[in-house]
Design a protein that fits this description.
It is built from 6 helices and 13 strands. The protein has one domain: Spore Coat Polysaccharide Biosynthesis Protein SpsA, Chain A (Alpha-Beta Complex). The relative contact order is 0.18. Strands 1, 4, 5, 6, 8, 9, 10, 11 and 12 form a 9-stranded mixed sheet that branches. Strands 2-3 form a two-stranded antiparallel ribbon. The model has no long low-confidence stretch (mean pLDDT 93). 26% of the residues lie in helices and 26% in strands.
């Protein structure tokens, strides 16, 4: 699942007329970088949620055949449903097996092939963490021996990439906004969240400045 429902307030005025996932980076929309990476890894079924200007996302990506994918859409009301609410809304499209969820407003070279093997049998989630960027210096969660806790000495930043079991979202009502962090912290308290550090490239494309920097970087590769 690619999360694409955010309004992109910090990206305004760019996102006044273009949904954030469709902002161009090195010649193609940000979300297309994700689709290409997933297709190369052998993924075939993709769910994309949307709210703000979602019709543009569907018009551009269509059914995903251009990338050898099958894309289905989970439409949300204006204002969206937050991360967990968006996943809960899309559960009927996601099936019973564990699923990979990626924020569409990041750029990351994490190997998505790993998604099929990282989740332990008794875990509800496996999160990808990254070293703290300047805009999130205090980090989000602590990681020790492959286990993630809400507090600890070595705090890192959640990359916006996770593998989840639908059980994590079982208590949520479809169509109601809900944040992901409280669900994760509850699961962490039960020792059911694993994780890893990704040492490679990761960018939270949250501002026009970061978008421009990433554009320059990728064009130089």
């Amino acid at each position: 699942m690619l999360l694409a429902a955010g309004r992109g307030e910090r990206m305004r005025p760019l996102t006044d007329v273009t949904p954030k996932p469709l902002l161009p980076v090195a010649g193609k929309p940000l979300i297309v970088w994700h689709l290409e990476r997933l297709a190369r890894a052998g993924f075939r079924e993709i769910v994309i949620n949307h709210a703000h200007l979602g019709d543009q996302i569907e018009a551009l990506l269509d059914d995903g055949a251009a990338w050898g994918l099958s894309i289905r859409y989970s439409e949300e009301p204006l204002g969206a449903l937050e991360t967990a609410g968006g996943v809960a809304q899309a559960l009927p499209l996601l099936g019973d097996d564990p699923f990979l969820v990626i924020n569409s407003d990041i750029w990351c070279d994490w190997d998505v092939n790993r998604a099929t093997s990282v989740l332990r049998a008794d875990d509800l989630a496996h999160l990808v963490l990254v070293p703290n960027p300047g805009h999130n210096a205090k980090g989000d969660f602590a990681l020790a021996n492959g286990r993630i806790a809400s507090e600890g000495e070595s705090r890192l930043t959640f990359a916006g990439i996770g593998v989840y079991r639908r059980e994590l979202f079982a208590g949520l009502e479809a169509g109601k906004p809900a944040k992901l962090a409280p669900l994760l912290r509850a699961a962490m308290g039960e020792g059911r969240v694993g994780g890893e550090v990704h040492p490679g490239r990761w960018v939270d494309v949250g501002t026009p400045e970061r978008l421009a920097e990433l554009d320059i970087e990728l064009r130089s590769l």
